[in-house]
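User: I'm preparing a small set of examples for a lab meeting where we compare how different chains pack in three dimensions. I only have the primary sequence for this one, and I'd like the structure in token form so I can line it up with the others. Please keep the answer compact; I'll paste it straight into my notes.
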Amino acid sequence: MSLFHESLAEGRWFTLSLTEQLANIGSEVHRVIRARKDQSRFDHAVARALELFTLTLSDNRWRFRRKELARAKELFCAAVQGSQEYYTSLEDLDKYFFHFALAARNQRYTQRE
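Assistant: Understood. Below is the structure token output for the 113-residue chain.
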């Protein structure tokens, strides 16, 4: 099985903070939304997001947060399928993950100072 994020899967992912990991997942969620009209781009964006969710879930630093992370993945999968089971859309998830992108950016600026 080929990976979309090979360099991340080889170890770099596990050097990122949880905030940075969730911000990256959020980037893929946003790509899923933007790619809705192109099935191939949509499918690839979904696969990339799922790969990042899987990498995050496999990161032992977050073992006590796995339930929360697995629920986010479950909500994402339901939203991708158009399910209304959780009353959550891709746009809702995009808003949720956007806050991690802001926090990650602020984290980088704070580390530079």
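A couple of notes for your slides: The chain has a mean pLDDT of 91. Residues 6-112 form one domain.

User: Perfect, thanks.
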